[in-house]
Design brief:
- InterPro entries: CYTH-like_dom_sf, CYTH_domain, Uncharacterised_YjbK.
- This is CYTH domain-containing protein.
- By secondary structure, this protein is α+β, with helices and mostly antiparallel strands.
- It has one domain: Beta Barrel (Hypothetical Protein Pfu-838710-001).
- Helices cover 27% and strands 40% of the residues.
- A hairpin with a 4-residue loop joins strand 4 and strand 5.
- The longest helix is centred in the C-terminal third of the chain and has 11 residues.
- 27% of the residues are buried.
Length: 193
């Protein structure tokens, strides 16, 4: 289990800008990940401003609950074995043990009340910069959702957006407000119902 404060700034990108940035940062580390998003049938987590996901990597998974804080989001994460990961996804719920389930109880939500409502596959390229951790994402969700996004994850001393906007200016990037991935996946799901 881990807990950390996530402070990030983001913008959607046009495909051309994404391609140019990939060329500008050729030493970035790229990998694929799939996120499965969970909530109660009446979307109690969404109403609380929280997000719950399982992220699948090649050799393990992560169950992460993001909850709003004064600055940023508190990420509570339980690491999952491949066996646990398969069990959670096959049974479309999470087990009532672990730190995430404990945090859900504090929100008056039982772990077995949440179910998967959307998924999203991302190719992420990361590089550490002076400003913070830069992530360039190409994401696909639902039947037709496809977008490009830049995220800049910063530490508390860079929590203002000054460094983010300076980065955008330096690389001639037009700011386009970006909902978080869970919101975009949810919107795509509603569009296809």
């Amino acid at each position: 289990m881990s807990q950390e404060l996530e402070i990030e700034f983001k913008t959607l990108l046009e495909e051309e800008t994404y391609t140019r940035l990939r060329q500008d940062f050729p030493t970035s580390t790229c990998y694929k990940q799939t996120n499965y998003y969970f909530d109660t049938p009446d979307f109690q987590l969404k109403q609380l401003g929280c997000g719950l996901r399982i992220r699948v990597f090649d050799t393990y998974g992560e169950l992460t609950l993001k909850s709003p804080q004064t600055t940023g989001l508190l990420e509570t994460t339980d690491r999952l074995t491949l066996e646990e990961l398969t069990d959670y996804l096959e049974h479309d719920t999470i087990k009532p043990n672990g730190e995430v389930a404990t945090y859900l109880k504090k929100l008056a939500i039982e772990a077995n009340a949440v179910h998967c409502f959307a998924d999203l596959a991302t190719t992420r390229c990361e590089i550490t910069l002076e400003e913070g951790l830069l992530a360039l994402d190409e994401s696909r969700y639902g039947t037709s959702g496809h977008d490009y996004e830049l995220e800049l994850e910063v530490d508390a001393k860079h929590a203002d957006d000054e460094h983010f906007y300076a980065f955008l200016k330096k690389y001639n990037i037009v700011y386009q407000p970006a909902q978080n991935k869970i919101q975009r996946a949810f919107a795509e799901r509603k569009k296809n119902q």
